[in-house]
Amino acid sequence: MVSPSQTETAPPARPKRQASRPNGQWKVDGTAPLNGNEVWKQEDGGLSVRERVEKVYSKQGFDSIEGTDLHGRMRWWGLYTQRKPGIDGGKTATLEPHELEDKYFMLRVRIDGGQLTTSQLRVIGEISTEFGRDSADLTDRQNIQLHWIRIEDVPEIWTRLEAVGLQTTEACGDVPRVILGSPVAGIAADELIDPSGLITDITARYIGDESLANLPRKFKTAITGSPSQDVVHEINDISYVAVDHPEHGVGFDLWVGGGLSTAPRLAERLGVFIVPDRVAEVWHGVASLFRDYGYRRLRNKARLKFLLADWGPEKFRQILEDEFLESPLPDGPAAPPPTRAGDHVGVHKQTDGRYYIGVTPFVGRVSGPTLLSLAALLEANGSTRLRTTPHQKLVLLDIPEENVEALIVALDEIGLAARPSLFRRSTIACTGIEYCKLAIVETKQAATDAVLELEKRLAGIDVPQPISLHVNGCPNSCARIQTADIGLKGQLLPDADGGQVPGFQVHLGGGLASVGRDEAGLGRTVRGLKVTADDLADYVERIVLRFIADKNADETFAHWAHRAGEEALQ
């Protein structure tokens, strides 16, 4: 009991400081879910929906699919509903998901390391032609996406894919996504280490593992043994870049916390060296750290990059080593800058004397018939292997020298160029409004039309380097607009009649580490710099010609774009 004298002499009570709201970190705040997504993920995990697809939904049809399965759990198996045709971009932000979506799915085929056989390619091509209206897109994460998939056909599609060693498991959702790998793993003469076995080990042990099937958000991985640094390591949650340690030999430099979308952040080195035998252990440690400490209250703050931004690399390393690894990691050096282009386009000699050929379609758009023709061409030329790339390209392996030129001609005939123009080579585009419920504008055709027009207009002009053009249908940056020389973010722009037309906000001078660029950097935005879709080729032509006229001797487009005055960039 407090005495009267104590009451009289005690200072007035200070108001209690309101505790900051919890971030939903399991190891800090407990596991009580703080939003609707976290509720259903805990009630019934995403991996569980496969049984319902096979036993209920595929038999009873689209309208039988329960809501949180349709808009949540089915992503764990690579399925998203696609956009209903005819809904313009102005309605993207105003309609509910069920109003935007069609009764068809996008199906993402997971291709870890980008490694495919012609038998697997043929199965994907057959699925496209039989079930997907010939659709097929190469993504910038080495996957292949099909469209127009009916729920009734999904079990049969899974059966066919899994019969040849492919899967859609955790191709989407709050899970470990596809692992990017060097497209020239095991064949390039300058490779430091072949990471193929490491990728296989991680996927076999952890993809589909219930303990990692409820992460705060998606978790992206990249591993390369190539000095070309060909897996866009600066924008993944965890990346391994091969490096030759002066004492420990060849292993990996570890990067964490990269990602783009509406809040771009480049990954940071932890300053450690990973021997090959510890790659899977460290991967599991970082994924588990993200699961236990990642932010879960707000989904727009739930990527690993936000945790790294708050902690910094030193604290991140300390907690990783203390709580999630068997022993600390040695310090390690950074990998040297890339020595050659990482898209692998063109003809290159393999270590065994045969050749690999990097080819590009227009902005990743292929088709079932194209894939079937490609499988037949490769087998006719003695090859059964190919790779997808993080640049919407294909790399064809094991071609005998005497077959190279004839094969290049045949590839051109099916829309795959081994010697493309600079703009066709360096242009990528996201899915866009054709299929995506988040998109505001069309992308694939707009980018293709721009490339074709630029090939004509700039024919004979000495463009000194590839200038990357990345076209995105919304702010989410699936086409990596902030890391392109010219990045285009889709939006609607006012027209002269008081209406709206499709267009883009322009980002200039971004890029990842590459030949001529030692470090990654984000693009520059200039206030009011926007271009309509119809004027896209005009703008790119104008800015490229201005760069050629104004640049210093060996200046890159990105360097020029950051130093140029705003009037020069209009």
From TrEMBL:
Q: What superkingdom does the record give? A: Bacteria
What stretch or stretches form a coiled coil here?
none
MF terms from GO for this chain are:
4 iron, 4 sulfur cluster binding; heme binding; metal ion binding; sulfite reductase (ferredoxin) activity
Q: Give its E.C. classification number.
A: 1.8.7.1
One Pfam match, by short name? NIR_SIR
Region Disordered, annotated ranges:
1-39
Q: What is this protein called?
A: assimilatory sulfite reductase (ferredoxin)
Q: From which organism does this entry originate?
A: Cryobacterium mannosilyticum
